[in-house]
Design brief:
The protein has one domain: Rhodopsin 7-helix transmembrane proteins (Rhopdopsin 7-helix transmembrane proteins, Up-down Bundle). The protein is 76% helix and 2% strand. The protein has a three-stranded mixed beta sheet with strand order 2-1-3. It is built from twelve helices and three strands, in the order E-H-H-E-H-H-H-E-H-H-H-H-H-H-H. This is Olfactory receptor family 14 subfamily J member 1.
Length: 321
């Protein structure tokens, strides 16, 4: 074991001691990252340019895609670079920023999932009041609240995590600066320390999960009373993917923060870390676009040759002014 106590930073463990396998992992991460980058960017462009998608559900979807884009960019590009360079060193300030933005964006994701479930609840259970409850100013305030809540969570975790004195080798058994793994480096580490730092995020996530579950209980009870089978199928096809994404994300995050950190990066640790860092931002664009006819039509329009030529001519006209 190398001694990194004289370093001002940390050492992130690699996936494997075999350089060929390390390159294979890095290549897989690169493919997933490019897929997430492309999918989320297309959704942001489509929801911003298509006038038919100017409704609260697509407004929140656009912000979710932006969150996903930032969320995966906090950890994955640095991991890819480290794997290709065969280096795991990360400076103290880089690690601080990574923890800050990772926790802030993860918390914001949970918050916006909650807002999106409430939007679906109002749209399905209270359709006559939808335009009043989810008016543009209310949607903007909801998004601001999402970012503020995420930022406060990130600041709190970062302040607590980096105020604890560290002892011994500064080796983090993860491919990014993971809070549970960093707590293990504390001079006075015990399970209570980890629970104290994770308590706020876990309790907030639990409250959000309960809110989401209650929203969907009301949604499903309303849908089941709809006489038309086609209408029920349409609503279920819209709501079930969202519920799956939320459950998957919260389950993976809760498992990671509540279980005792291990002394090495095992295949199980890697799998669960990928479940909440890489998979959700990569799959969200697929889930929210392929099952939505309006979104698919908007994406076809954005990717069409005619639309590209029209936008190009518009840009030329602007630069000639």
């Amino acid at each position: 074991m190398f001694n990194f106590t004289t370093m001002s930073g940390f050492f992130l463990m690699s996936f494997s001691g075999n350089p060929e396998i390390e390159i294979l992992y890095a290549s897989l991460f690169l493919v997933l990252y490019l897929g997430a980058l492309t999918g989320n960017t297309l959704i942001i462009i489509a929801t911003s340019m298509d006038n038919s998608l100017y409704s609260p559900v697509y407004f929140f979807l656009k912000h979710l895609s932006f969150l996903d884009l930032c969320y995966i960019s906090v950890t994955v590009p640095r991991s890819i670079c480290n794997s290709f360079m065969h280096s795991g060193n990360i400076s103290l300030w880089e690690c601080i920023l990574q923890v800050l933005f990772f926790i802030a964006l993860a918390s914001s994701e949970v918050a916006i999932f909650t807002v999106m479930s409430y939007d679906r609840y109002v749209a399905i259970c209270q359709p006559l009041h939808y335009e009043v409850v989810m008016d543009p100013s209310a949607c903007r305030r909801a998004v601001i609240a999402v970012w503020v809540a995420g930022g406060l969570s990130g600041l709190m975790h970062t302040a607590i995590n980096f105020s604890i004195p560290l002892c011994g080798d500064r080796v983090i058994h993860q491919f990014f600066c993971d809070v549970p793994q960093m707590l293990k480096l504390s001079c006075s580490y015990d399970f209570i320390n980890e629970m104290a730092v994770a308590a706020f995020t876990t309790s907030t996530a639990f409250i959000c999960l309960i809110s989401i579950v209650l929203s969907y209980i009301h949604i499903f009870s309303t849908v089941l009373r709809i006489p038309s089978a086609e209408a029920r199928t349409k609503v279920f096809s819209t709501c079930l993917p969202h519920l799956f994404v939320v459950t998957f994300f919260l389950s993976a995050v809760s498992f990671e923060f509540l279980r005792p950190p291990s002394d090495s990066l095992s295949a199980m640790d890697l799998m669960f870390s990928i479940f909440y860092t890489v998979i959700p931002p990569t799959l969200n664009p697929v889930i929210y676009s392929l099952r939505n006819e309006a979104m698919k039509a908007a994406l076809r329009k954005v990717l069409s040759k005619e639309e590209f030529v029209q936008r190009k001519m518009g840009l030329k006209a602007i630069f000639k002014l």
